[in-house]
Write a structure and sequence with these properties.
371 residues; mainly alpha; 15 helices; 0% strand
Length: 371
Amino acid sequence: MDARADPSTPAAMSSDTEGATRGFASGLRGRTTLQAMLYTAVAVGLLLFLVQWAQPVLAPLLLGLFITALTAPVFGWALGKGAPPAAALLVTIGGVLAIGLVIVLIAFASANQLLASVDQYTAGVMARYPELASALSAIGLTVRMDTLIPSDAIPTVLRTTAGVVTDIASALGIAVFIAALLLLDGRRLATLIGRGLGSQNPMVREAPSVARAAVTYFGVRVRINAVTATGLLVLMLVLGVDDALLWAIAAFFLSFVPYLGLTLALIPPTLLAFAESGLATAAVLVVGGVILNLVAESILEPAWTGRALSLATWLVFAMFFAAVWLLGPVGMLVSMPITVMIVLLLRSDDQSRWIASLLTRDTGEPSSPTG
């Protein structure tokens, strides 16, 4: 019996799928440019709706994939040191679970402490109004402080911050276990995907080089972010800012978003520093954070990555806000990993490399990362 005669056979199903794809493509080519644009807009809109609808599932899954990419080099390092694969995998998964759960506990504890102290911080900020008004009048600015910083805005900002920390901690708790499972079963899944798509499939063929480039880039970013977060932690401890460890951890993860991430991470500790110690302490924290940001992005990043992947500023901002809109607070952490993977995939193909050039600030052939 001919396999194609039976619609339930894989060959017949594959033939039907290919025929439908060719029919859709030929139908789209037969339409006018306006109709094609409308079809594309509808498809993109439907995709965005589905992503936002599936946010509770997609957010921790994407975060888990990101954690897996960050920790995969640890597994490779352990293998390189001669450790048996089972032992290397056990160490990697154990480290992911331990560190992830510690971060989650710190986040929940700090968020609860912040919520319990909202009234205290609000009173502290309002008590500093005359000090801030005097500083502004000294440079020729006369404003009503209750207009510049409404009293009801302070508890709103603090409660929103605590809510964001709690949401991210909840997603992180799930993502840590997803990452552990992916590390445990990663090789088998990669083999099955390769068999399913075929060894000559462009995605399978380019996947190893794209993965190596992504791991190298994120490895360098981890080092840069560690320097930034450590510097900010020391500064906050010296200034006596509450929950300094939480804000340093937030700075580490948000610094994957160049320039914008650390700026956002500075807002809550600056507000607390102003409430606790006054304008001078808050100003020192802001100036120190700005210096750390500039050193990280203008000195360390070019030196350690060799400008292998310098994303366009407009893309960083656009992808950040799009990811937050689609995925909620977790989007702050995964926006740049998604962006970097898209750019690297576009770079891997000659026909789409020009699109990748539009999304980066590279002016010539990309160099290899030095990290």
